Amino acid sequence: MKTKFTLLIVALTLALAATLAAGQQGPARGGGGAAPAAAAAPMTLTTMGWADGTMIPNKYTQAVPMPVSPALTWTNVPAGTQSFVLHFHDPDVSKNNTTAEQVRWLMWNMQATLTGLPKGVAMGAQLPDGSRQISASGSTYRGPGAPANGPYHHYTFEIYALDIKLDTIPAVAMPVAAGATPNPNDELQTRDKVFAAMQGHVRGKAVMGGLFRRPPA
Predict the structure, then answer these.
(1) How far apart are CA 133 and CA 126, in angstroms?
(2) Sequence-distant (≥ 6) Cβ neighbours of residue 178 within 8 angstroms
(3) Which residues contact 206 (CB under 8 A, 6 or more apart)?
């Protein structure tokens, strides 16, 4: 009798252990368990002008008298995006003996329906769609201009997807008249304002870049 009781206890213990193990493993494949949600594809930023990280063609730079901005395309925009900010900068420069980098081009309050920019964006503090722009050259794109007697600079484009619009952020600089010299701090102050307003509202970001220095004279 004692032997039968012992065997019964052992059988019950093994059955309980098997039940607990099955519970820890979760539902079997093909069962009714919910599949994990697929991760959202990251934003991408590209241009047909050059391959990411390679030499930027002269037509987009200060190697020519009238450089034009490159056509840009971005994909996989996050849900809930209300506007975009484009930041084109030169991380190899220390502006005004500070940690500030040179702003080559800053655009904000860009429409959430945009999937890119055409080649040669027009000059203007505020464009017809409500986008605003500024650079060290005024209200326009400023092409790369690293000197010929130094290293190649790593020019970087960044596109930010925001869950707010920044139409209440005024540009510090007014449109620069032909031949006028812009205040060298205007674009830095504007970038500080725009970046401060962006905090906590960035839903996605994509980056691409290119190399440039002026051709030898």
Answers:
(1) 7
(2) none
(3) 42, 43, 44, 45, 74, 158, 159
Residue with tokens 């420069």: 93
More confident residue, 85 or 12: 85
Nearest to 193 by CA among 160, 168, 176, 174: 168
Question: H-helix or E-strand containing 209?
Answer: strand 202-212
Structural domains for the chain = 44-212 (3.90.280.10)
CA–CA gap between residue 159 and residue 51 (Å, rounded): 17
Tokens at 146, concatenated: 């690293």
Alpha helices for 89-131 (secondary structure H): none
Smallest CA-to-CA distance from 60 within 130, 174, 157 is with 157
pLDDT (tens digit, 9 = 90+) per residue, 26-67?
A: 444 455 556 666 778 999 999 999 999 999 999 999 999 999
| CA distance readout (Å), 99 to 79, 91, 169, 175, 188 | 34, 10, 23, 26, 11
Whole-angstrom Cα distance, residue 126 to residue 108? 10
According to DSSP, the residues that pair with 211 across neighbouring strands are 55, 154
pTM: 0.78
pLDDT given at position 95: 85
Residue-wise pLDDT for 163-195, tens only, equals 999 987 665 544 445 455 556 568 898 999 999
